[in-house]
Design brief:
Helices cover 27% and strands 22% of the residues. By secondary structure, it is α+β, with helices and mostly antiparallel strands. A six-stranded antiparallel β-sheet has the order 1-9-5-13-17-16. Strands 4, 10, 11, 12, 14 and 15 form a six-stranded antiparallel β-sheet that branches.
Length: 448
């Protein structure tokens, strides 16, 4: 479908992987740009040092002196009162001890978030839940064998048969639809005026009249990408069994990756119980430190290597139950209460932190996403057979609402037309009764 194609292109362009034209598998994606200049969402950054104003520094100093050099953040206590909050428990209210300010923020700043998370609800007694953390790291490949680009065979042969004398055809290799180099070009490749050795030879070749008249000019951009700036993606994926009964500290996630020795990620779990239902908050955190003396910009090499791209958390549990956020339970917001009532049959299974959440009820999974989607159905002013359980009622309704049958041009008698209108009135009345039956179990506050 064109809609799916459009969605895929947006995802590849904003989040990745798969935005470039090297044609490699997404797990080993190659891009000809800094990753932070290419992608704009789905990124968790290393911890950024925040420069405080003089007033903020004075305030922190005063507070630390008062509390014995330890700045303490009191736990936040939020109390909810109302009927039927989450289950049929007879209690009318409950006090929830939330995590501290530091736990919730996780060293986060709004411009460069260093964590994502989701909160979901468990109704059973699972000892463990399966959590999968994934994402992509980018690095500049040191080995020439790691770089290749998909090209049609006729394009590769254009390099070999070039009458203008392409100077590097002897180091080109073609295998399974990909072209690569057997050795790197010598010299300095940065800057148009400072390129040296092989790069200067290449520049002079492209200025020749023979090249301008050759068919190779239609494929030369493939070679340009091979010798240009290149970042390679490495997939990060680990699955961990977490005990939802425990509230853990920040735990490291082992990577086993020598290419990113300064990169470090971890996860944090926070649980709390409301009326026999267990709420679990899971966060994926970039624990890498900002490198001293380096600018925090998209073109900073070290920053690009310390960011986790396409970050995702996926939770699987057979005990997942519909989630209701605290905001949805606010009895003082009439508009929210009305919306919650109208959409009470539309279940949600979690909320995201610095991200959105999607779920699959059939597979008992809930996961984060940076590009949520929802299929909005078109409005209609007609009936289909699928709208009726009784096919006779469908045929009756079609006959009742046929405009031709309601005009003076109708072949029906007056008594038949009146009978049709009475049938419509009867069917409509039955629909109203069915809606009332659905609302028979509403609470007193919902009936109001």
């Amino acid at each position: 479908m064109s809609r799916d194609t459009f969605h895929q292109r947006i995802h590849k362009g904003l989040i990745g992987p798969g935005s470039d034209s090297f044609g490699c598998d997404d797990l080993e994606e190659l891009i000809s740009d800094y990753p932070l200049q290419r992608y704009f969402s789905g990124i968790i950054f290393p911890q950024k040092k925040i420069s405080l104003s003089q007033d903020e520094e004075d305030e922190n100093l005063t507070q630390s002196e008062t509390e014995g050099e330890n700045i303490i953040n009191d736990d936040i206590i939020i109390e909810y009162k109302g009927e039927g909050l989450l289950n049929e428990d007879e209690e009318k209210g409950v006090a929830i001890k939330e995590s501290s300010y530091e736990d919730d923020k996780m060293f986060q700043n709004h411009f460069y978030p260093n964590n994502i998370g989701l909160t979901f609800c468990l109704g059973g007694h699972s000892e463990t839940i399966s959590v999968e953390f994934s994402g992509g790291l980018y690095y500049v490949p040191e080995k020439i064998e790691e770089i290749k680009i998909r090209i049609p065979e006729i394009g590769f042969m254009a390099f070999q048969d070039d009458k203008a004398g392409f100077p590097f055809k002897d180091i080109l290799k073609y295998d399974s639809g990909y072209m690569s180099l057997t050795k790197s070009l010598k010299g300095e490749k940065i800057g148009k005026l400072t390129r040296t050795e092989d790069f200067r030879t290449y520049d002079e070749y492209k200025k020749t009249e023979a090249f301008k008249d050759s068919s190779l000019k239609n494929y030369i951009h493939y070679f340009d990408k091979l010798i240009g700036r290149i970042w390679k993606r490495k997939e990060i994926q680990t699955q961990i069994q977490i005990r939802p009964l425990d509230t853990s500290q920040v735990e490291d996630i082992p990577l086993g990756n020598d290419l990113h020795k300064d990169f470090k990620i971890g996860y944090h779990v926070k649980t709390y119980t409301i009326k026999k239902l267990k709420f679990v908050k899971v966060q994926l955190i970039n624990l890498s430190k900002e490198q001293a003396g380096k600018r925090f910009t998209p073109k900073t090499h070290a920053l690009n290597e310390k960011c986790l791209f396409q970050a995702k958390i996926k939770v699987k549990s057979n005990d997942l139950v519909p989630y209701k956020s605290n905001q949805e339970l606010n009895p003082f917001d009439q508009e929210s209460e009305e919306l919650n009532y109208l959409y009470k049959d539309v279940l949600s299974y979690g909320i995201g932190h610095n991200t959105a959440v999607v779920w699959d009820e059939s597979n008992n999974t809930v996961e984060t996403t940076f590009l949520p989607e929802h299929d909005i159905r078109d409005t209609k002013n007609d009936f289909n057979k699928e709208d009726f359980e009784n096919q006779k009622e469908y045929e009756m309704m079609i006959q009742c609402l046929d405009l031709h049958n309601l005009t003076i041009f109708s072949t029906l008698s007056k008594s038949d037309i009146i009978s049709n209108l009475n049938n419509f009135n009867k069917l409509y009345n039955e629909w109203i009764k069915s809606q009332k039956e659905k609302c028979s179990n509403d609470t007193e506050s919902e009936k109001k």
